[in-house]
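--- STAGE predict ---
source: upstream dedup step, 1 unique chain passed
mode: sequence only
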Amino acid sequence: QVELVESGGGLAQPGGSLRLSCAASGSIFSINAMGWFRQAPGKERELVATITSGGKTNYADPVKGRFTISRDNARNTVWLQMNSLKPEDTATYYCGSWGDGKDYWGKGTPVTVSL
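--- STAGE serialize ---
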């Protein structure tokens, strides 16, 4: 069992920045990749970015060049630095982990981008 706890969401103005954190605990030895998905009201959950234990990253097209995912394996933590935020980035952001054929999810942290 892996537990994921997100933090860092909130309100930002367009063009602003936020940094999300996700701390993993439990059976962390089983984790390979970690990452972030988001779900806006009335929409399906979508990929934002992922990172493997080896540091290989993958980004969704809408966030490329604006968001950066990073990971500290020793601290079992993954971050999402979000710059140049847009109103369409408004969503609940979920941290996920994958490994040993299982996936785990955090409860999510809300991000609102508005004037």
